[in-house]
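quick one, 176 residues, struct below
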Amino acid sequence: MDFTEKTVNKNYLYQGKILSLRCDDALLPNGQPCKREIIEHSGGACVLYIENDCVLFVKQYRYAYGETVYEIPAGKLEKGEDPKCAAARELLEEAGVKSSALRLLYIMYPTPGYTNEKIYIYQAENGEKAQACPDQDEFLSAEFIPLSKVKKMLENGEIKDGKTLVALLHYFSQNP
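---
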């Protein structure tokens, strides 16, 4: 069976700096009309970096959740930017680590029901210390946390960010 839905009209309701919102007219596979609310997003890249049995985390306040969150370094893709370059850029900007050895682990669809966002998850190796230079509107701190404590944080539900969970679960599945 063909599950494809066909777009009839893309109706933009909002176009912002980070995302756009559409309410499309579409057709279901059986030909019936429907509406599809879509958030367009350029995507993001993140990077898992482990040094001396410690995971590099960035702690920052996330306005939408009203709390400070532990995450691996990450950021939005600029238009046409290579995700691997974005991951390396974010690792340097947010945490002051320079690495040219990045390996793609996954491409994640964080919320396939209403957004086209893709997050590219990398793992970096052979990092060198460099000067961190966060964006003007980024207030964060980078810290290394021992793998044993990270496991406990996972067990206690202290790590809530989806991309970080995927990267860590991958790492621990490969390194029990």
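The mean pLDDT is 95.
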